[in-house]
Structure formats: C-alpha cells, structure tokens
Amino acid sequence: MTEPLEVSVVVPTLNERESIDLLAPRIADALRRYRYEVVVVDDDSNDGTGEAVRQIATKFPWRLYVRRGERGLASAVVLGMHNATGHVIVGIDADGSHPPELLPSLILPILSGSAEMTVASRHVPGGSAPGLDRTRRVVSWGATMLARPLTSVKDPMSGFFAVRRDVLDRAALEPVGYKIVLEILVKCRPTPTVEVPFVFAERTAGTSKLGSGEFGRYLRHVARLYAWSIAGRRRASTTR
Questions:
Q1: 22 CB-contact burial (10 Å; exposed 0-12 / middle 13-18 / buried 19+)
Q2: CA angle 106, 158, 33 (to 5 degrees)
Q3: Burial call 156-166: b when 16+ CB within 10 Å, e when fewer
Q4: Which residues are paired to 118 by β-bridges?
Q5: Which helix (H) or strand (E) holds 80?
Q6: 7-238 — its CATH code?
Q7: What are the tens digits of pLDDT across the range 143-167?
Q8: pTM value > 0.85
Q9: Domain assignments of the chain as residue spans, ordered by start
Q10: Are 94 and 47 a contacting pair, CB within 8 Å?
C-alpha cells in the first residue's frame, strides 16, 4: 500500500516558461526527505509553460491542470488545493521570488503539530522585501493596513504559506484577486499560525501580474471578508 503524501506544493502559473525549469530541482532538493507532489495550475499560458511542466513531470512528481477561460492567482491556488493529496499544502509562486529552500521551515511546524498554518513573512525579525519596488511597497503596506482588523498575522499579504489540509474544510474559499492567505486566515481561522521570516527576492524571470485592476479586486475581497466576519460574529451571538 502506498504511503500517503506528506506535502503537496501548489504552483499557479501564467507564462512562467523561463522560471519553471529553475524551480523544479530546487523544490526537489528542499523536499528530498519528504513524500511530496507538485500540483501546477496553469492559466492557459501561451509561452510553452504547460509543455515545460509536462517535461518536468517525466523526472519529478509533478501534475498539471490547465484552466481555459478563467484567470486569477488565488482561484488557481484553490483549484490546486482541491486536487492536492498531501497532509500539508504549500502555496508558492513560480517566478523565483519565493525561495523553495524555505519549504522545510514552513512544513515542519505543521507536521510536528505545533501549527495549523505557517506564513512566510516579510514583517517579522529576519524578514525583508528587497524584491519590491517603491510603488509595490506602498501598495503592500496599504493593503496590510486594510486587513489589520481581520487578523493578527503581520504579513497577511504573503503568497508563500503552508497549511494543514483538513483546516481548509472549515469554510468555502472564494477569494477575489490574489490574496489567498488572507482568505484562509479569516475564514478557516488556523490556530496557531506561525510566521516564518523570509526575504522576498526579485523575480528570476517574467513580469509582475499585479495590474491596475488588482487593487480594486483586493478592495472587493476585503469588503467581502469584513461582511463575512461580521455575519459570523452575529451568528455566534445568537447561539449563546
């Protein structure tokens, strides 16, 4: 009987052909002590990303799902999580800004039972974000301030995280835009959540996918989460 997987790494992609080949051996090296899989959800890239992943899958335990007619980083991660089989699910970007070498530090607290979720954080001692230009720093700061009443996690804007798979069963995840970590923190209430310091590096390839419309989508997402949180408190008060 095949032993269950310990880790599923979910990688959303859109035109990541240049960086995906670099990511595969780094993940393999970081997870060499674990039973793992990589689940790639590609938004119908036109640069050969899908074919690159198929080639990688001949050497490493990778799987590919291609979405057509749908876009969005967070929703791609949700699809990957639904198809993941590991006890711990990790979300990581494909562009090189999230160092795969940090994976064991994110996974171990969950496997040891000391955390339900871990977040790679730029805002705890040892963390930083040299890969963000000034504009993105300001946007990230503003987005974090808007989310502050919803969670005590210092870097809810991070896209690099790990979570115990059964925690995701606590609520339906319907993120708008790209902030899946905030969605999980608010709706699933993983306790405890541990922040692991990391350095957000410059991307190794590709361009940022945060267009002008993303902040508007983020505002809608935060508004929905505030409404969800308020409704939850009202439900709780009526059952006391």
A1: middle
A2: 20
A3: bbbbbbbbbbe
A4: 162, 194
A5: helix 73-83
A6: 3.90.550.10
A7: 889 999 999 999 999 999 999 999 9
A8: yes
A9: 7-238
A10: no
